Amino acid sequence: MSVIENVPVNTFRNYLNILNDSSSKDELKLKATQELSEHFEMIMQSPAYPSFLENSLKIFMRILQDGEPQFIQENTMQHR
């Protein structure tokens, strides 16, 4: 794997570290989540995707199990 291919994956791993850090501000976590979402296809096509996926699943599972639900007050009504 070349250095150029590593740069985006390392950036995305840094975003995962932000999500995993309980001291990170919510705004920073939101930005990290948006960046991961916007570049998901690029991540999937990377040779480092299997290790990224393994690491990200651990982080996302921890967030889902240990985190508190977040609601936007203006949008608390369920939509059908």
Automatic annotation (TrEMBL):
This is Transcription-associated protein 1 isoform X3. The lineage of its organism: Eukaryota, Metazoa, Ecdysozoa, Arthropoda, Hexapoda. The gene is LOC117137959.
